[in-house]
Specification:
- The protein is an all-alpha fold.
- It contains 17 helices and no strands.
């Protein structure tokens, strides 16, 4: 899809559908964003490989001491802080598999953990420019520094997290939905390489301090932090440094998407969005803009929805623009394609199915099993990772019908339909009930 969008964008420029002037303006605008995207994702990826997220996730489970409400609050805080500090990509793509693995180790329902990270990857991404690419674009448009954006949107961010927290508790975490009353805390986590762990944790903290306190460009702060992490990996774990760490597809997708959106904007979309958004910079206009942004982002994708909507908002309406930003950041939680990082996460959600067939992530030594399958991968040496050594296997959470824990029939059917539709579009098939097919690997 990334190459296709870029090809369409270049074709529009070559054929004159998009004049070279606007195309050049688009490329000039996103130029500084691409180094930031590349370096911050490499930073998050290597931080995950150093075990920082695994250790923190285990610490969260131990701190809650078997109490589900406490675990819920700590998971919400963990996912929110990760999204705000390191961006939504880190939470969606790296933290979700970590939380699923933690759920497997301690024998708790995996779906509540997965949905917590998936939802908060979007709804907690309002506070800083680094949290979401759309924030970077909005901050540039209205000339807000990272601290200025945080000072402007802190109330909206708190409200968004609060509403998300209430929905998560009601749909997935409350008693009767999660499948158990208590869980057994995991053992004390120990990083495989303490030096890598400490350096990566310090680099992430330094990046956050740099963008909040120092007046430096975002790409410079993320680049310096990524350079430190890459250097320590080059000394202590060179084999982990691969070209696949660089998010090529995203770096191709962003320019292509901007060129295509600019082309469509100049051929009718701008007029439609201008009529839908209006010109009111007051409360009603803000609510209207947020609603339009949320709706369009679920139909298309949050990034083109913001880019197209921003062009339709009058230049003297900063409040309306920020309301649009809130809508496109918080709203895309319904359709699988609404956010750029939903597709890989959607493919991990079947792993969280709490049925009598154990399904876990292949990168943790387990595979999706079918009838009569133990769920053990030969790479684990035949060990059952769902319970500790010398302990009886934990009883899986109870399920209702064909769905997940406490999941209604309508929502279960809708979820399965969305998964099948995305599988057909992306080329990743969903294993049938007989199982045996392995899930696509989840990059850490």
């Amino acid at each position: 899809m990334a190459l296709g969008l870029l090809a369409l964008g270049l074709l529009a420029v070559a054929t004159g559908l998009l004049p070279t002037g606007p195309a050049g303006d688009v490329m000039e605008r996103i130029g500084p964003l691409l180094p930031f995207l590349a370096t911050v994702i490499v930073l998050g990826e290597l931080t995950g490989r150093a075990g920082v997220f695994d250790v923190i996730a285990s610490w969260v489970a131990r701190t809650a001491r078997g109490n589900y409400p406490a675990l819920f609050g700590l998971c919400v805080a963990f996912a929110s802080v990760t999204t705000i500090a390191l961006n939504l990509d880190t939470t969606a793509v790296l933290l979700t598999p970590v939380m699923l693995a933690l759920a497997t180790r301690v024998g708790i329902a995996a779906l509540p953990m997965a949905m917590t990270t998936v939802w908060l990857a979007n709804t907690a991404s309002l506070l800083l420019p680094a949290s979401n690419l759309t924030n970077l674009l909005a901050a540039e448009r209205i000339a807000l520094s990272p601290s200025g954006l945080a000072a402007t949107l802190w109330a909206a961010q708190l409200a968004s997290i609060a509403v998300t927290t209430a929905c998560l508790w009601g749909f997935y975490w409350r008693r009767g939905r999660r499948g158990a009353d208590r869980y057994e805390p995991p053992t004390t986590p120990v990083p495989a390489d303490p030096v890598l762990f400490r350096v990566c944790a310090a680099a992430c903290a330094g990046f956050l301090l740099a963008i909040l306190v120092a007046d430096v460009e975002l790409w410079m702060a993320s680049g310096a932090a990524a350079l430190v992490v890459v250097a320590v990996f080059a000394v202590r774990a060179r084999a982990e440094l691969k070209w696949s760490l660089i998010p090529y597809r995203l770096l191709i997708l962003v320019p292509g998407m901007f060129l295509v959106v600019e082309t469509v904007n100049s051929h009718g979309l701008h007029t439609l969005l201008s009529a839908a958004l209006g010109t009111d910079d007051g409360l009603l206009g803000m609510l209207r803009s947020a609603g339009v942004g949320a709706g369009v982002s679920n139909v298309l994708n949050n990034l083109p929805a913001y880019v197209a909507g921003e062009a339709a908002v009058p230049s003297g309406n900063p409040h309306q623009l920020l309301a649009l930003l809130v809508g496109v950041n918080v709203g895309p939680v319904i359709t699988p394609w609404a956010s750029p990082r939903h597709p890989p996460v959607v493919r991990t959600l079947p792993v969280a199915r709490n049925t009598d067939r154990a399904r876990t992530l292949p990168r943790h030594g387990l595979r999706a099993g079918g009838d009569g399958d133990t769920g053990l991968d030969p790479g684990t040496g035949g060990h059952d990772l769902t319970h500790g050594p010398g302990k009886a296997p934990r009883r899986p959470p109870q399920v209702s019908g064909r769905g997940r824990v406490g999941e209604g029939a309508a929502f279960s059917s809708a979820r399965r339909w969305a998964g099948r539709m995305w599988g057909r579009c992306s080329g990743h098939r969903t294993p049938g009930p007989a199982g045996g097919a392995r899930w696509p690997g989840v990059r850490r």
